[in-house]
Amino acid sequence: MNVLIALLVLMVLAGLWSIMTSLLIRATIALALTSVILTVIMFQLGAPLAGVFELSVCAGLISVVFISVISLTHRQPIKDYLERRQRRIMRFWPLPVLLLIAGIALSLVHRPVHIVLPHPGTVADPRIVMWQLRRLDLFGQVLVLLAGVFGVLILFKGNKNGN
Amino acid sequence: MNYLLIFIPLIAMVLVNLLPKKIRPVSAFLTLLLILAAQSVFAALAPFGIFHAVGAVKMERIFGFHLVIDNLSLLLILSAGIVGFTALMTAWHMIESEDERFNFTSLLFILLIGMNGISMLRDLFSLYVFIEAIAVSTFILILLQRAREAYEGALKYLILSVTASALMLTSIALFIMFCGGTSFEAIRISLASYGILAKIAIALFICGLFIKGGLVPFHGWLADAYSSAPAPVSVILAGVVTKASGIFTLIRVLTSVIGFSLAVKELLLVVGAISILVGALAALGQKDIKRMLAYSSISQMGYIMVALGCGTKLGLLAAAFHFLNHAIFKSQLFANAAAVEQQTGTRDLTEMGGLAQRMPVTGVTSLIASLSTAGIPPLSGFWSKLLIIIALWVSGNQFYAVLALLASILTLAYFLYLQRAAFFGEVSSKMTAVTEPQKAGMLIPVVLLSSITVGLGLAFPFVIRYFVR
Fold first, then answer.
1. For testing contact with chain B, the best of A143, A144, A157 (most B CBs within 10 A)
2. Number of structural domains, chain A?
3. Nearest residue, CB atoms, A143 vs list B67, B114, B197
4. For chain A, what percentages of helix, strand and coil (3-state, to nearest 5) are there?
5. Hey, which of B180, B287, B457, B467 has its CA 20 to 30 A from B381?
6. DSSP type of residue A46
């Protein structure tokens, strides 16, 4: 339990870093770190398949996409960077304070929750869940992917003005 | 038959994408036009059994999932067909680039499949997946022409849509935890046994749907998204897409899963009443024609909410009828606004004047839609608003009935301002060279929709019997 709490705190800190940093590359690294810690939590809670998905898609694939886009941008002058960093800190400083207060408040009012949940059925093989029980959701996923393809075509194809 | 509502557009979309580039845009346009027309006609004739044709069991065995069609499904299928047709016709005559036209048509295919899916699903997680498909397509459609102002609208839509998705996913996770599944049946059976946990899950899901539906206080994205999107995208967004992901799903979840408890009814009434007032008051202060129509949409969706808040069969009927009416007159008003913007080059009402003399068809059809929205007899909007007010009154919500009635005066006020500023009076000096759109394709949908508005109003006794049956 203590390990889990420590991991959760680390995950929140990594999430905060990703929001408060003014450098895109650091924000990407922080986001990947958040996903990695979440993966460890999922393994700890006995959900290895969800952990693998989280690690490969969120920490891996999405970070690669972010870094590829960042590689297309220009480096900002150091003076601008310092100004941006200052502005960002001024804008987001209440966030860690708010999280800290919320954490303390929740730990003070914390009571054990007693909910009688239905007895879980036998854990189905993910292959059966995906390809037989949730086949319709795959169609939905295909739609999301198709929309994504058109998104890439529309948003990343250079226009006549070269923007 | 109901399975075909998903598979035909999906297969058609894939096939037109495989065609040679030269004939692709025209083929996509014609194919989708045919599908939308067929879908609208079939949905209108559905009570005679066209969707319940044999073969559903066979299809279920082949594909391994179950789609159910009922009268509520038909409402969305019909609305999607009519509004999709209007948006497609508008796009074909307003979007100049062939590539953009083709991309619009392809994304409209995806929206259509998504909406048809939503209308027939009986599983919360599948609903979520299809809503996400619609959200992704909508985001890209807003940015179709990559106008600078569209980025702000699209970003606001994206941020609030993702927030809504997070709320809905959390709710689904809770439902899985205590119901063991996400089918409507499994959730409905288990709901009573888990007091506070069930209430949290329901509240989160409803909150997510309120954001998707652009209801007050979650309406921040709607005016920017509608006004900054390309004209045909505004037509489909305001006409049916927002309502499909937010309002229709809410109606489905309320009627099939959650039910109308006292707390839910109070919530719907309060959110609906606030949306009616805030939307109408905000619309009154607008000078941009599209922003005015966007705020008007918030107000009209508030009417659907208060009708639902009655928790009675009459309330549900009124909500369903206003849903269809709003799809028709709002998509028509946005199509009119598109024609005005294209011909005058502005959306600013203060720069217009006397356009009815220059654009008589647009002027007359826009007047019909405005009066119908304001609830003037004998147009269709009058009957749905009358049903809403009667439903509120007989269910003991007299305060909300009076409020709905008074808000209609506000609706009339901002639409009269729109008509006076844009269409009535002397022709403004800047508008002397303006003419009606020369392409019949721009006028056919608005004339058709106006005819439906007048026809539904005049034939109301027949229509209502048809609906109730």
1. A143
2. 2
3. B114
4. 75, 0, 25
5. B287
6. T
A89 and A13 in a single domain? The answer is: yes
Shared domain check, A138 and A102: no
Q: Does A129 touch chain B (CB under 8 A)?
A: no
Residue A118 lies in a domain: no
Residue A74 lies in a domain: yes
Chain A residue whose CA is closest to B9: A143
Q: How far is A114 from chain B (nearest CA, A)?
A: 11
Nearest to B197 among A115, A139, A146 (CB): A115
Report the Cα B220 to chain-centroid distance in Å.
Answer: 17
Say yes or no: A128 and A75 in one domain.
no
d(CA B393, CA B388): 9
Mark B59-73 as b/e (b = at least 16 C-beta within 10 Å): beeeeebbbebeebb
Residues A140, A91 within the same domain: no
On whether both A82 and A137 belong to a single domain, the answer is no
Is some CB atom of chain B closer than 8 A to the CB atom of A135?
Answer: yes
Residue of A nearest to B106 (CA): A150
Lookup result for tokens 């619009």: B104
Q: pTM for this one?
A: 0.89
* From A115, A143, A147, residue closest to B140, measured CB to CB: A147
Its domain, for residue A29, covers: 2-113
Would you tell me the crossing angle of helices B460-468 and B440-458 to the nearest 10 degrees?
Answer: 80
Where is the domain boundary, A93, A113, A133? A113
Per-residue pLDDT of chain B (469 residues; tens, 9 = 90+): 678 889 999 999 999 999 998 899 999 999 999 999 999 888 887 654 444 544 555 666 666 677 888 888 989 999 999 999 999 999 998 898 899 999 999 999 999 999 999 999 999 999 999 999 999 999 999 999 888 888 889 999 999 999 999 999 999 999 988 888 888 988 998 887 777 888 899 999 999 999 999 999 999 889 999 999 999 999 999 999 999 999 999 999 999 999 999 999 999 999 999 999 999 999 999 999 999 999 999 999 999 999 999 999 999 999 999 999 999 999 999 999 999 999 999 999 999 988 999 999 999 999 999 999 999 999 999 999 999 999 999 999 999 999 999 999 999 999 999 999 999 988 888 888 888 888 888 899 999 999 999 999 999 888 877 766 6
- Residue in this structure with the two tokens 């004998």, named with its chain if needed: B378
DSSP state of B46: G
Mutate to test the interface with A, among B18, B115, B130, B233 (most CBs of A within 10 A): B130
Q: Specify the residue for token string 């999430």.
A: A15
Contacts of B178 in chain A (CB under 8 A): 115, 117-118
The minimal CB distance from A147 to the residues B65, B133, B197 is found for B133
Q: Which chain A residue shows the shortest CA-CA distance from B177?
A: A117
Q: Which residue of B has its CA nearest to A146?
A: B110
